[in-house]
């Protein structure tokens, strides 16, 4: 059911796509070529594990230019780093966390449109002990002009679950537990009056299938309904404070009607 055109549209939300080729030979897979390596790196991070028509896709490098395969960090221990100063680069993040022996990857998340930092990033470790030490040591430490926040990026750690509030920059494992699993709607606030549905939907398509959009541009907000709770949580985490037509969008969970027979949350 997935076509070259569909994949092209999904991946182009990250950056300019040169070509897409789907191969159906026993196992279905595809090659997506980006014009810029940074967009390709971000696509691997954003798209790996996302669901298309309820099938989880795996995204990784097809081939390095030097013919050396890039290390697969999918099963490594990932740390969320928040409140990153705008001057901090991928290299600065690597340098700050490389003191913890088994660090395998570190990168800042960049806005593909403005080219500016989104103010958070991720660091991966092969060894869980190193990840734990990095969180304990680096949380609250100054990196550049800001004190950073560190926490688990996945459900390998536990943390208190604050109530949903637009604009909160929280890690995935917190966001996903803020509402019941049947909720897939996202509240998007602080929208400019000139935003249209196409502009609003585009960044959310990177995280799954957008089922429905209810846009109230004149009132400055919208509700975007995703296909799964997990994809909605990922969208809230990664698109929090995204720039939409000059405004900083504030995201939080929307409300959905519980399905029949759903137990009280």
TrEMBL record:
CDD domains: RRM2_PUB1. InterPro entries: Nucleotide-bd_a/b_plait_sf, RBD_domain_sf, RRM_dom. PROSITE patterns: RRM. The keyword Endoplasmic reticulum does not apply. GO terms for molecular function: RNA binding. The keyword Electron transport does not apply. Residues 1-64, 77-155, 184-256 form the RRM domain. It holds the Pfam family RRM_1. Gene3D superfamilies: 3.30.70.330. Keywords: RNA-binding. PANTHER family: EUKARYOTIC TRANSLATION INITIATION FACTOR 3 SUBUNIT G. This is RRM domain-containing protein. It comes from Mucor lusitanicus CBS 277.49.
